[in-house]
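Give me the 3D structure for MBL fold metallo-hydrolase.
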Amino acid sequence: MKLLMLGSGTSTGVPRIGNDWGLCDPNEPKNRRTRASIIVESAAGQRILVDTSTDLRAQFLTNGIDRIDAVFWTHDHADHVHGIDDLRPLRYGRGGPIPGYAIGETVRRLRQRFDYVFAGQYGYHTIVELDTLDRLRICAGFGIRHCQMPHGPAQTTALRFDCDGKTIGYATDFSAITREMVDLFTEVDLLVVDCLRREPHPTHACLGLALELVEATRARQAVLTHLDKSMDYATLSGEVPSHVAVGFDGLEIVL
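Predicted structure for MBL fold metallo-hydrolase (255 residues):
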């Protein structure tokens, strides 16, 4: 199984508009971060996209992605959703809509804001056939498990993918660790984990909280994501344990 990190940045990306790099070295390409999204891919080549980031078109072009087998949404915040229209070219040539999944409340919000994606309009095909995660156990050859995580006053969905005898967990946009999260991610082969900055934040994991989740779950490897402009790649890489990597756009990990 393979992880492809399409985007590793926070909601404003790095640099922020105004060419604001913060503490990040602008001469380090791994500090240039688009909004957070990943693809998990099986040995057979089946792909699941997680979140349609604001930068999805550029991410697909950069990584040569022209096909996916399903899409999952962790929640409906703009940086994780607003690239949804860039799924249209992936619908071309398919026999039907792309399967899409989220928890019930996220499904409701997505339908309200992007009705044309899920119902079609004016002769255009439906792009995504949207359903809830409630009873989903297998998708595109992957075993699927999930739970809800606190994201400040909101919630976001943690996802676990099992395939080819390996496991990848995805935990972005969380602000506290719950027993359900630890149970879901226990001893995963790879955990992709929210890590906005070093200082505590009301809606995101800081470095200490991210490393606490890695330790609590006994994840074999971990990758930090959703990084802001204070998280310089080289500096942060020197601070984390050997089994924890700092994520960057285009990172591929084969398990």
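The first strand starts at residue 2 and ends at 7. Let me know if you want a second pass.
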